């Protein structure tokens, strides 16, 4: 989930990062169950229910439910389910039923032991066209390109430049209205992490920084339109969109993807 961040950067201790890793593994495991259930004929409401049951089973807290950034109504679900032309913040509904050939971004966040884990994946439902598959693959590849640069001494602009360069080289665009963010005891902390920018620009990354990197890649133009529910963000030209996200700790030995079970410190 993406909202403007506060202004203070809090570098995490090793103990805090271990707690965030525990939260990341729980978030990833619940999201695995949601993704396994995402098939033609299943509603996004049913997916949200699976996530709610996972939250209850693990005795954690949703980072999204009732989230209220000030000028919006409280968010009513534990998932964001963003189908096809929806970029982010799609609200799960009983009437929103997955169809063969859809793409859907599923964004999920929890708090465990007072720390947040935030992660998202875009799924391809059933028989997906080559163009949609290429879009999803590009967004995933863009996230991996950014993760590879999550190293002490690199700059935030290096991440945005990696995402933008890869997406645009394949004929896609990156959303500028929403960005990634720091995370920790709050879901949204400083710094903001744009998906565009210049290499060697912006704040330098330090050991202990934890950020949520989340490229949003559109098949058409980057322009965004927000629907009347004050949450759902769609592509203005109604082209397809994809979204991936991981929570990443910047360590001296390299990046640690806290929401990826196979990741270890320095080996994303």
Give a concise summary.
The protein is an alpha+beta fold and 268 residues long. It has a single domain, classed as Creatinase/methionine aminopeptidase superfamily (Creatine Amidinohydrolase, Alpha-Beta Complex).
Task: Give structural notes.
It is a single chain. A hairpin with a 6-residue loop joins strand 7 (180-182) and strand 8. The protein has helices at residues 14-37, 44-58, 130-148, 156-169; strands at residues 61-62, 79-83, 86-88, 103-112, 115-124, 173-174, 180-182, 189-193, 210-213, 216-218, 224-226, 233-235, 241-243, 246-251, 254-257. It has a five-stranded antiparallel β-sheet. The two termini are 22 Å apart. The mean pLDDT is 96. The radius of gyration is 17 Å and the shape is globular. Helix 1 (14-37) runs antiparallel to helix 2 (44-58). It is α+β, with helices and mostly antiparallel strands and 268 residues long. It has a single domain, classed as Creatine Amidinohydrolase, CATH 3.90.230.10. It is built from four helices and 15 strands. It is 27% helix and 25% strand.
Question: Which shape, going by the Cα principal axes?
Answer: globular
Low-pLDDT runs of 5+ residues are none
If you consult CATH, what is the topology?
Creatine Amidinohydrolase
Q: Bin the helical content.
A: 25-40%
- In angstroms, what separates the terminal alpha carbons? 22 Å
State the name of the first-level CATH class. Answer: Alpha Beta
In CATH terms, the superfamily is Creatinase/methionine aminopeptidase superfamily
Order of SSEs, N→C?
Answer: HHEEEEEHHEEEEEEEEEE
- Kindly state the mean pLDDT as a whole number? 96
With helices defined by DSSP (H or I, 4 residues minimum), what is the helix count?
A: 4
